[in-house]
Every structure is written in C-alpha cells, then in structure tokens.
Amino acid sequence: MKIETKAVHAGDRKRDPERPGAFIPVTTPIYTAASYVYESTEKLDRVLGQEEAGYCYGRYDNPTLAALEDLVTELEGGHASLACASGMLAVQTALLTALTDRPKRVVAANALYGATLSMLTKILEPLGVEVQFVDICDAAAVEQRIADVKPGCVIMETISNPLLRVGAIDRVARMCRHANAALIVDNTFATPLLVRPLELGANLVVHSVTKFLAGHGDVLGGVLTADADHAQVMRAINRTSGVGMGPFEAYLTMRGIKTFVLRMERQCANACRIASWLGGHEGISRVHYPADPAHPDAEIIARLLPRGLYGAIVTFDLKDAGKQDIFRFMDRLKLIVKGTSLGDVHSLLLYPAIASHRDIAPKQRERMGISDGTVRLCAGIEAVDDLIADLQQALD
Ligand code: PLP
C-alpha cells in the first residue's frame, strides 16, 4: 500500500473482537480514562500481567495513542511506536532504549538540533555516558570513530537542522550493525514521505510530530518507532516512566497526518522555488538546499531522496549581516511567521542563533557553519509568489 493511503487509513477503525456488531467510529475517539476495567477480574489480572492484550492503566498505553502509534509504525515501516509528550522525549527514550543493554558510549553527528546536542552534553555526559562527535557525512571518519569508540549507539538526523546536511543512513547502518551499535535517526525534517530510515537499516526513528506530521502548529509531541529488536525495551521504559503524549494531542496528530503527504509535497515545491529565487538575490551570500547540485552531500541526496522532494526548509545567510540586521529583516516580514518551529501550514522563519541553537556557544556555532547572518525558513502551503514577495520587500 502506498504512503498516501496508509496516512489516511492506518490506525483507525479497529474492530473489537469481543463486541461483534458494535458500531465502529470512522475516526479514533479521544479516550481520556486513566484506567480501564473488565467484567471479570481474572481478565484484568491477565491484562495487568501482560499475558493478554488490553488496556489497564493510562501510563502504559491508551487507545487514542495506540491508533497514532499504529499509524506511524505503518508510515515508517517499523515494528512498534511510542507516542511521546515531545520530540525531545522521543529522542531521550530512543537513547535510553539503545543504551539499556549496550556500552554507555554514543557517537553523535556534529550537526544536530540544539536541544539534542544539549541532551547529550548536559544530561547524558554528566551521567557518565561518553559522547563523541563526528561529521556524519564523512563515511571514512564515521567508520574510524565507530572503531575507536565502540559505541552503544550512533545518533544522526536524516536532514540536519539547520544546515540541511544529509548523511548516508544506509552506510552508517551497515557500520553500526558490524559494531553491534544501534542507529537512531531523527527523521523530523525528512518525514517518511522522503526517507524511511528503518528500511535503510536504522533501528530507532524519532519524530518531533510538532512539525510536519501534526503540521498545524497546535500540537507538541513526538513519536519513536522501533524495529523488532528494540520494541520491547522501548515499551518497558515507557511503562516505568510514562513518556506518553496526552490523548487530545494524539487525536490532533492523527488528524494532521491524514493530510501530511499533500502538505509536504506542496511545501517541498514551495521551498524549491524559494531556494532558487534566493540564490539569485544579491543580498544573499549563501543558500543551503538539498536540491542544489553543488550541495556537499549531492551524491547521497541523489541516492536517498526522491526526485523533486528535497524538504521544505531553506537555510540562508544574509550578506554581511549581524544580529541587528537579521532582527530588522525579520521585523519587516509581513506574511512569513517569525516562530520557533517548522513544518506548519504557514511559513515560518527562525533565527538559529537566538532560538534552536541559542544554547550552543557562539564559537561552536560558527564552527558548525551557523553564523550570525544565518536564518532558517520553512515553507508553508501558501501561494509561493506571496512568500517570495514578502521576502523581497523585507530584503529591499
Ligand atoms: N528534532 C528536531 C530535528 C527538531 O527540529 C526538534 C524541534 O525543533 C526536535 C527534535 C524536538 O522536538 P519537540 O520540540 O517536539 O520536543
């Protein structure tokens, strides 16, 4: 079945074998119950003991979350998923799942979302986990780092935030398999429409569903999808810590996912037009966009991304701009929303130095290639000519 069809149907309209003939809601309702009862205590005992499938306590699982989890499992081609209260909780649970029975050592891509970098260096390192960074797009360097560190897991993003670097997930997955390390991929920027990391050999896939999957700027949440080897540990971690999102957010996320393919196609097309327009603007010194034939990872992009779908994000540098120039440019935007997110139906522009990468020391930010003149635009579904007109008047 194609992804457009799965997005609309998967997870919903499950039949209850114990209630044949009962009505079936076309969309999964919002279940708010904290606990569940059965007519027979013997059955409750079996459900509590995990000898029989069923719901007993909201921290363990919930029918609305289960529908969303089944949907994302289908989209990502995984074994099981866990809907989490935030994308960062999905990242954290992925790291705990990967490291539970492996050496407490992580090899991390040096281009990662700022909070993921902070989680590695400010939470895991002080807890005694060794963290080593590597340029994930340099296969030889990754191989060497894995051989030196012998990590329990490797963590990378499909398309990195904000500079849009694309690592060879399939090659890194092969290296991880040989080293008995788990590969965690944050697929937030790509979505399963562009790349399905589990099919390329990754073990755990993370989404901030706050972004493209929910898509309307009204949900904070994450989903972690695991392969068969990691599903049980992932659920066991949740059983003790309760990382689940609320049922209302799960409902909104499912509702959003039904249209995510349509939105994503439009957003990718808009971003592509904007990137080429920015490339010809004299006030712009650098444009990062995966469709660019001169992109440093062009070979990997040609192999892993579908033609015409290069993501909805364009990152660019205003020529000779400092913080005040960027503030002035942002204040002049009339249509594009200056919000600290991405993936919504409306276009969003973010200044990494004060938002996603605020907690990274300025020198390290510069080393990562994020200057004081770098901004990140996520194209929405608006008419692209209106977006270009807004950028034009703000840059003039
Ligand atoms: N991963 C990536 C790539 C992100 O961009 C973000 C947030 O911007 C997250 C994870 C964290 O998601 P959340 O804000 O839903 O916790």
Textual characterization of the structure:
This protein has 396 residues and is α/β, with parallel strands linked by helices. The chain has 2 domains: 81-245, Type I PLP-dependent aspartate aminotransferase-like (Major domain) (Aspartate Aminotransferase, domain 2, 3-Layer(aba) Sandwich); 260-395, Aspartate Aminotransferase, domain 1 (Alpha-Beta Complex), CATH 3.90.1150. It has 15 helices and 11 strands. It has helices at residues 3-9, 41-48, 63-76, 87-99, 114-124, 139-149, 169-178, 191-194, 231-241, 247-257, 260-279, 298-304, 323-332, 362-368, 384-395, and strands spanning 80-84, 105-109, 130-134, 153-157, 182-186, 204-208, 222-226, 284-288, 313-318, 348-350, 374-378. Helix 1 runs antiparallel to helix 3, helix 3 packs parallel to helix 10 (247-257) and helix 4 crosses helix 9 (231-241). The protein is globular and about 75 Å long. 47% of the residues are buried.
What's the CATH C level of the largest domain?
Alpha Beta
**Strand count, sense and closure of the main sheet?**
7 strands, mixed
Question: Helix and strand string, N-terminal first?
Answer: HHHEHEHEHEHEHEEHHHEHEHEHEH
Mean pLDDT: 96
Q: What's the architecture of the largest domain, going by CATH?
A: 3-Layer(aba) Sandwich
Shape, principal axes of CA atoms = globular
Q: Mind telling me the C-alpha Rg?
A: 22 Å
* Distinct bound molecules: pyridoxal-5'-phosphate
Low-confidence region ranges? none
The CATH homologous superfamily name of the largest domain equals: Type I PLP-dependent aspartate aminotransferase-like (Major domain)
Percent in strands: 5-15%
Number of domains: 2
